[in-house]
Design a protein that fits this description.
By secondary structure, this protein is of the alpha/beta class. It contains 17 helices and 19 strands. Helix 6 packs across helix 7 and helix 9 packs parallel to helix 11. The relative contact order is 0.07.
């Protein structure tokens, strides 16, 4: 309000009062402030508001000694919902999840969406992990009911990471600790909750360092292949070899696949690593073939490789550049991998087979494919998983299940390869059952390319020890 004194003006002789209605401006300012601190889709607090409230809660806990807690939550396989039902359906799911989360907390707590399918809860006056787990229990129960989207039921689970505040610590530390706990929960599986412990940070740092080293390893060609002979169980003649990748780490020494392949899969580095393995194996076996050894090489394909649209072209180029006949290459895929997306995997396997390469199902018997699928798969070889040829049931011979797998393969006219043979009795039982080929420590251990070359030059038949 503005007042202008015009009493001295004889024509007016009064006061002029000017009033401006600023309600609209105030409403707009309020809206802008709300938008700056809230998620537009779910109307929950956003990261900025959450950080501010965590900072206040930490300062308050330093005064009164009553800690708060932060819970980070990540929906499992949310990408699949967007991919199959569309992003509109995904948004509806996020809105419903936000509503359910808000119903799991008290009036003084804060629910926030940090982006994508990641949510956070600030739990005031939460002194210990037990109190926080009561909330995670309510969340698990709330998310267990299906969400109806376009007449389809969507079932959810979530991974949670919890960090209990240390009075006076910066809010960034509390949020970072919750993120570390969430990472550990997702590493262990789906629908799990982990509470932060100091030792977790060291594990994450080690993992980040290993990831950085893995990137450099691809650039610096720190990988090498070992070859494990595949042997004819009747004649003990070497007929092929499986190429097994190793990492010669500059500080940690020789690393086996189990120590870095899962990380390579997760980061996508398995694609360039797998391509190098394929090309190097083809070159090595082509050189042996020119030396007179008519053997084949088996190379494992990962899930990420099978999903690459240009996989067939990559395999064709590797064969062409190495000068290796296609029938000398065996590509191994796991049974469970095929069944994840058979509509995509089976046509790709057929295209690979059309090149002239052979396809093997690795770890057969451990997956969940039906016999009707197996009958239609473009497959040449079945590899019997080691778990079926180990155990006390092998004393008089093969277990009934192992014999059944061999009989099935023979009935389908597939070549049978047994993995993990460690005893002479196992080799004899497999040979009697009709299994043609085998590999394992009893027959020969994996060896570097130079040792494998020397073995082939010295003999093509392994001793019958």
């Amino acid at each position: 309000m503005i007042v202008t004194n015009l009493l001295a003006d004889s024509t007016i002789a009064g006061l002029v009062v000017t009033i401006r209605d600023i309600q609209e401006r105030k409403t707009l300012e309020k809206q802008l402030t709300h938008q700056a601190f809230h998620d537009p889709l779910t109307n929950l607090a956003n990261r900025a508001l959450l950080s501010d409230r965590v900072a206040h809660a930490q300062a308050r806990s330093q005064r009164d000694g009553r800690p708060c807690a932060v819970l980070l939550l990540d929906l499992d396989d949310f990408k699949d919902i967007n991919d199959t039902l569309g992003h509109g359906a995904g948004d509806q799911v996020l809105i419903e999840v936000a509503r359910r989360l808000h119903g799991c907390i008290r009036a003084g707590d804060t629910a926030a969406r940090l982006g994508g399918d990641e949510f956070a809860l600030l739990l005031e006056d939460t002194p210990d992990a037990s109190s926080a787990r009561e909330v995670t229990g309510r969340i698990t129960s709330a998310l267990s009911d299906p969400i109806l989207i376009d007449a389809k039921e969507v079932f959810l689970s979530a991974s949670c990471g919890v960090a209990i505040g240390i009075p006076g610590a910066p809010e960034e530390e509390l949020l970072r600790n919750a993120d570390v706990a969430l990472y550990h929960a997702k590493e262990k599986g789906k629908g799990l909750c982990e509470v932060f412990e100091p030792g977790m940070r060291a594990a994450v740092i080690q993992r980040l360092e290993l990831e950085a080293d893995l990137h450099r390893a691809v650039e610096r060609s720190e990988f090498l292949l070992h070859y494990q002979p595949i042997v004819d169980l009747q004649s003990h003649r070497i007929v092929g070899a499986e190429a097994l990748v190793r990492w010669r780490h500059p500080q940690r020494g020789m690393l086996a696949p189990g120590e870095f392949i899962p990380l390579a899969e997760e980061t996508g580095l398995i694609v360039p690593i797998g391509r190098w393995v394929l090309e190097e194996a083809c070159r090595t076996i082509a050189a042996h073939s020119r030396g007179g050894s008519a053997i084949h090489v088996s190379v494992n394909l990962s899930a990420r490789q099978l999903q690459e649209a240009d996989l067939v072209e990559i395999v064709a180029a590797a064969l062409r550049d190495a000068g290796l006949p296609p029938d000398r290459l065996v590509l191994e895929v796991t049974e469970s991998l095929i069944m994840v997306d058979p509509r995509t995997m089976i046509p790709r396997m057929r295209a690979l087979r059309d090149l002239g390469v052979r396809i093997a199902i690795d770890d057969f018997g451990t997956g969940y494919s039906s016999l009707s699928y197996l009958q239609n798969l473009p497959v040449d070889i079945l590899k019997i998983d080691r778990s079926f040829i180990h155990g006390p049931a092998l004393a008089p011979g093969l277990s009934p299940l192992a014999r059944g797998i061999v009989d099935l393969g023979r009935a389908m006219r597939l070549v049978m390869v047994a993995e993990g043979i460690e005893l002479a009795e196992q080799a004899d039982a497999l040979k009697i059952s009709g299994c043609e080929l085998g590999q394992g420590f009893f027959l020969a251990r994996p060896m570097e390319a130079s040792a494998f070359e020397s073995l082939l030059k010295s003999t093509s038949t392994l001793p019958r020890s």
